[in-house]
UniProtKB/TrEMBL annotation:
InterPro entries: At5g01610-like, DUF538. It holds the Pfam family DUF538. Keywords: Signal. Residues 1-22 form the signal peptide. Coiled coil: none annotated. The keyword Signal applies. This is DUF538 domain-containing protein.
Length: 166
């Protein structure tokens, strides 16, 4: 390796010493999968992420805040989601909240247990089948538009837009 290359490497190490830049060959969704989680934990449109593989500390960035409804729940994502991810477990989760009845509660932990995902909001937790998260939800629309249950203008527009982006 030439010395400028070593110099660059050293700089890179210094810059990323506390938050190792994610291996950019993996998308954030593939990274989730490598820890045993389905891609649908994060909505479509994550613009970047950082992951320190040694500690599992991560940050994922969205274009802005994101919210959508899933059945009786309303979910809200902040533009920065952070936490500590290890195999089958995400703890210290920050940035995702769920509206239960009239209360907004922070989802602090997600555990993969076989075919189920357990979401913890501190005082309570709820289990959902992993199958529900095979697709990424879309901001403002949720899972329904992915499943094609909403056959309105929104869906065809989204399909149209994504075909342009591809
Ligand atoms: C949820 O977390 C935010 C910080 O991310 C905090 O300001 C808010 O008070 C928390 N809400 C609850 C209900 O704990």
């Amino acid at each position: 390796m030439s010395s400028p290359a070593i110099h660059c490497l050293f700089l890179l190490l210094l810059i990323t010493i506390s938050s190792v830049a994610a291996d950019d060959t993996l998308t954030v969704y593939q990274a989730l999968e490598s820890y045993g989680f389905p891609i649908g934990l994060l909505p479509v449109g994550v613009t970047g992420y950082e992951l320190d593989p040694s500690s599992g500390k991560f940050k994922a960035y969205l274009d802005g805040t994101c919210s959508f409804k899933v059945d009786d729940y309303e979910l809200k994502y902040k533009s920065t989601i952070s936490g500590v991810i290890t195999k089958n477990r995400i703890r210290n989760l920050k940035g995702i909240s769920v509206k239960v009845l009239i209360l907004w509660l922070n989802i602090s932990e997600v555990i993969r247990d076989d075919d189920e995902l357990e979401f913890s909001v501190g005082i309570a937790s709820a289990n959902f089948a992993v199958d529900n998260f095979e697709e990424c939800p879309q901001c403002g629309c949720g899972f329904d538009c992915v499943n094609g249950e909403r056959k309105g203008v929104k869906l065809s527009l989204n399909r149209f837009v994504s075909s342009l982006v591809d």
